[in-house]
Design a protein that fits this description.
313 residues; alpha/beta; Rossmann fold; two-stranded parallel ribbon; 11 helices; 17% strand
Length: 313
């Protein structure tokens, strides 16, 4: 089987490539808009393509002839999406529309990612069949993309995630990295206590993607850690597991602050997050608790387990 990963430099794409390469005999094509990989290796071929150009994308897919396409492209900065609607629509909606058209005609399995931001955050965490009601422009683009896949093709898989963290060969930061940087600075900082989620390590997203490919699973799936907690609680876990916790808890440099203090451009769902029980049954997976995922991430960081950096760059 041949898998095409579009937007191959993302953290999620890197984890998917690492997992599929190391545990299957599938061939991988890694698509980027510019040259970022200096070489290819057995079963992995870098592809340079302006995937925002529909004709170029179609030609590349015709050349590669994949059985499955994994779309990892995303305008993921929520505040920037609120300010630049055209870019958000192009990356989160138009590209998906083009991929649906190509995959429907060529009978290709399409896997694309969405977010708990398709929900309003009033009654989270949310099940797979909960009614979407996005409150940010980012969330609205993700909801439109979901509907495009649902209504436009039979072999479509939507994987919703939230608060993703994982290693990156290209230095792409995540919320855990942000916290570690703050602890390294050693200055007091504030984290909101009113925004809830269930963070997930990219390794576990990769497992879900592989299961969807191998078992030809279509529809909506939720991928999230088994621990539901606030952003402030996330910071306390990171403080402890990465060795920043003071002997006297009162000397912690983390302060809990209200969401209003952040002055974020886009509204956030406060009680977001995803219920995963149904998806775990379908995918044949059990997602890790947050402490276990953090320990895994710490090991990856310390051992420099960066797949692209070690093999392709």
């Amino acid at each position: 089987m041949k898998i095409l990963i579009i937007g191959a430099t993302s953290k999620t794409a890197e984890a998917i490539a690492r997992n599929i390469y190391s545990t299957t005999n599938f061939e991988l094509a890694l698509m980027t808009r510019e040259k970022v990989f200096s070489r290819d290796i057995l079963r992995i071929k870098p592809i340079i393509c302006d995937y925002m150009n529909p004709e170029a994308l179609k030609a590349a897919v015709n050349f590669i002839q994949p059985q499955c396409i994994v779309n990892c492209v995303c305008a993921e900065n929520v505040d920037e999406c609120e300010k630049d609607h055209s870019k958000a629509i192009a990356l989160n909606v138009t590209l998906v529309e083009n991929l649906v058209s190509i995959c429907r005609i060529k009978n290709i399995h399409l896997i694309s990612f969405s977010s708990d931001y398709v929900f309003d955050g009033e009654k989270g965490p949310y099940s797979e069949d909960a009614r979407p009601n996005p409150i940010s422009f980012y969330g609205k683009t993700k909801h439109i993309a979901e509907n495009t896949i649902r209504t436009g093709m039979m072999k479509g898989t939507i994987i919703r995630t939230n608060v993703i963290f994982g290693v990156s060969s290209f230095g792409k930061k995540n919320f855990i990295d942000f916290l570690i940087d703050k602890f390294e600075e050693g200055k007091p900082f504030g984290i909101v206590g009113s925004q809830f989620c269930n963070p997930v390590l990219t390794n576990e997203i990769a497992l879900a993607v592989k299961s969807a490919i191998i078992n030809s699973l279509y529809g909506v799936f939720h991928v999230g850690g088994s621990t539901y907690l606030s952003r402030y609680e996330i910071a306390k876990h990171v403080e402890r597991i990465f060795g920043y916790a003071p002997e006297d808890i009162e000397n912690s440099i983390i302060n809990m602050i209200p969401s209003s203090e952040l002055k974020q451009v886009a509204p956030r769902p406060l009680r977001g997050g995803l219920k995963t029980e149904i998806s775990c049954d379908s995918l044949g997976l059990v997602f890790s608790d947050f402490d276990s995922a953090l320990q895994n991430y710490k090991l990856q960081v310390n051992m420099k387990q960066k797949f692209y950096e070690n093999y392709l760059i």
